[in-house]
């Protein structure tokens, strides 16, 4: 399976992946998902938002028992790594294969899911597919989201209401680790106990376009200066508070080499260990940006585009799975996941992580060793067997 996926959406120059939702590479991955499900005799369901799930076992046979869901996503960030998302989907199919080889007789329906637009790399809303599936985001709002080319989501898909998660009692997601926790502990697999709160904030900084040569420095109203100070302030405040803050995307207008810009739009990604810490971090960055704008003669407008609160995964499920897997490490994560959306929606959720020897993610340098990936498949198969065969009480 991994051999089939490796070339899809891969950049020949960087080695990274461009798998943005509803673009050719991501659509090819969706076709691969359907083929993998059909080859296993699974029933494929697609909701109005493009989320996919492949079900093992006829619905009527397990109508009285809560369904178990596993999976992840297939889309990527711009120039992203191979493992973030697809490893969870491939491992889910592999775990199901292993369970069948072991002769597991499920007493609950098991589904392998592929949520759409998890990264928010096209329409700017992280975990958009799972948010729509659980109703955390209204379709009327999501339909108006636009990509960088001005295309509305409502012109790409019809939308509506999703019933895909009806009856789902438990969700387990496997993911490549996006940090160094398992490296430091010398462990191939771990369980995560929660997700740091995080958000995306758009900074619109308005100034006045002018000539780069004839305009004296003291006569300029330059939004780039305000942005530059704000980016430095974000870095400093995150370091001082022990949190995370990143300006990773910027749009400058008119974007001319010989012109003072008239407008800068920049996006802040902020993450912190608690909801209060996130509010404190974001507020301090905005305060410093506003003060600098006053000195530069510019204006700053901050819009929270996407904010996710602190998530604690189901503690009983977490502890039971960690014990079932032989006491693997339990760690927090600073990355957002569809699992966090489902947990917030009241579906007991757990996450398994596979060691990333580079410690690098959202980058072509993201990696995982085959032996660790196979250990992850074993761990996921054990966890799912416990859930669908009645050994784990969820």
List its traits.
nine-stranded mixed beta sheet, 394 residues, single chain, Allantoate amidohydrolase, Alpha-Beta Plaits, 23% strand, 15 strands, 11 helices, 2 domains, Aminopeptidase, Bact_exopeptidase_dim_dom, metal-binding, alpha/beta, zinc, elongated, Amidase_Cbmase
What would your notes on this structure say?
This protein has 394 residues and is of the alpha/beta class. It has 2 domains: 2-196 and 310-388, 3-Layer(aba) Sandwich (Aminopeptidase); 198-308, Alpha-Beta Plaits. It contains 11 helices and 15 strands. The chain has helices spanning 2-5, 24-39, 86-101, 128-134, 139-142, 181-185, 223-241, 275-296, 315-324, 338-344, 370-388, and strands spanning 43-46, 52-56, 67-73, 110-115, 168-176, 189-195, 198-206, 210-211, 244-253, 259-260, 263-271, 299-308, 311-312, 330-333, 349-354. Strands 1, 2, 3, 4, 5, 6, 13, 14 and 15 form a 9-stranded mixed beta sheet that branches. It has a 4-stranded antiparallel beta sheet with strand order 9-11-7-12, covered by helices on one side. The radius of gyration is 22 Å and the shape is elongated. The mean pLDDT is 94.
SSE inventory with pairings:
Layout: H1 2-5, H2 24-39, E1 43-46, E2 52-56, E3 67-73, H3 86-101, E4 110-115, H4 128-134, H5 139-142, E5 168-176, H6 181-185, E6 189-195, E7 198-206, E8 210-211, H7 223-241, E9 244-253, E10 259-260, E11 263-271, H8 275-296, E12 299-308, E13 311-312, H9 315-324, E14 330-333, H10 338-344, E15 349-354, H11 370-388
Parallel strand pairs: 3-4, 3-5, 5-15, 6-14
Antiparallel strand pairs: 1-2, 2-4, 6-13, 6-15, 7-11, 7-12, 8-10, 9-11
């Amino acid at each position: 399976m991994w051999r089939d996926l490796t070339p899809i959406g891969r950049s020949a120059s960087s080695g990274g992946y461009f798998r943005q939702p509803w673009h050719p590479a991501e659509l090819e991955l969706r076709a691969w998902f359907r083929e993998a499900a059909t080859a296993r005799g699974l029933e494929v369901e697609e909701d109005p938002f493009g989320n996919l799930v492949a079900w093992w076992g006829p619905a009527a046979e397990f109508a009285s028992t809560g369904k178990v869901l596993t999976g992840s996503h297939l889309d990527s960030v711009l120039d992203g790594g191979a493992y973030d998302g697809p490893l969870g989907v491939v491992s889910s199919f592999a775990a199901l294969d292993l369970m069948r080889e072991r002769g597991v007789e499920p007493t609950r329906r098991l589904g392998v899911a592929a949520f759409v637009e998890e990264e928010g790399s096209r329409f700017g809303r992280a975990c958009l597919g799972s948010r729509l599936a659980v109703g955390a985001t209204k379709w009327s709002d999501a339909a108006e989201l636009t990509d960088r080319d001005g295309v509305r989501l409502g012109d790409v898909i019809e939308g509506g209401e999703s019933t895909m998660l009806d009856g789902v009692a438990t969700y387990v997601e496997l993911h490549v680790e996006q940090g160094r926790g398992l490296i430091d502990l010398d462990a191939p697999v771990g369980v995560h106990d929660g997700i740091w709160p995080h958000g995306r904030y758009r900074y619109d900084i308005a100034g006045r376009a002018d000539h780069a040569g004839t305009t004296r420095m003291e006569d300029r109203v330059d939004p780039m200066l305000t942005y530059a100070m704000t980016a430095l302030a974000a870095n400093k405040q995150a370091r001082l508070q022990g949190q995370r803050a990143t300006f990773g995307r910027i749009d400058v207008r008119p974007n001319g080499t010989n012109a003072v810009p008239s407008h800068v739009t920049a996006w802040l990604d902020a993450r912190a260990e608690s909801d209060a810490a996130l509010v404190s971090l974001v507020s301090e960055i905005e305060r410093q940006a506003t003060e600098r704008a006053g000195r530069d003669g510019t204006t700053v407008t901050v819009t929270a585009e996407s904010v996710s609160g602190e998530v604690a995964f189901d503690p009983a499920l977490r502890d039971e799975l960690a014990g079932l897997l032989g006491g693997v490490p339990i760690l927090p994560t600073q990355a957002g996941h569809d699992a966090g959306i489902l947990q917030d929606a009241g579906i007991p959720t757990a996450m398994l992580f596979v060691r990333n020897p580079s410690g690098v993610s959202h980058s072509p340098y993201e990696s995982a060793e085959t032996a660790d990936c196979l250990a992850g498949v074993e761990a996921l198969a054990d966890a799912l067997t416990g859930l669908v065969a009645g050994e784990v009480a969820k």
